[in-house]
Amino acid sequence: MKIAVEDPLTEDALKLIDGSEAALRAVYTPDECFAYSPKELAEPNVRFYLARDDQGAPMGCVAAADMGDYIEVKRLFVSPDAQGTGLGRALMAHLEAEAKAAGHSMVRLETGDLLVSACALYERIGYVRRGPFGDYEKAEASTFMEKAL
User: Fold this and answer.
1) How far is residue 2's CA from residue 38's CA, in Å, rounded to a whole number?
2) What global pTM score does this model have?
3) Which fold does the domain 2-105 belong to in CATH?
4) Among 8, 14, 37, 123, which residue carries the largest CB count within 10 Å?
5) In what order do the strands lie in the sheet with 128-130?
């Protein structure tokens, strides 16, 4: 498995982003989702990481949005055939290592309790629940978490 920064507007990246969007829409309404669009993922303050298997097939992605005093996790997604392999954990570890190397000491994210696997992963790797941050408002569908690096 190789994880590297890639352009979120490529065909491979867009397939993963579409998978992420479909997973969100299966449990949340559009008003309850705060995921970045592909265009937002291509902004200069965002690093989009794509994981590929040994044959080069895209298996998962995550983005790190530099919000100044913290990094915000966006679009963590693992393709269905790679779920349960530890790829989500590997993507998060890569994002955290890159954030720490860039001088950041805090990673935050917004998710939702209906994304049971995601919440369980975040808690297993040390994220703790907190209140809204940044421009987020308190919302019943949202769960806010953070981890000090």
Assistant:
1) 21
2) 0.95
3) Aminopeptidase (3.40.630)
4) 8
5) 2-5, 46-52, 58-66, 71-78, 106-111, 143-148, 128-130
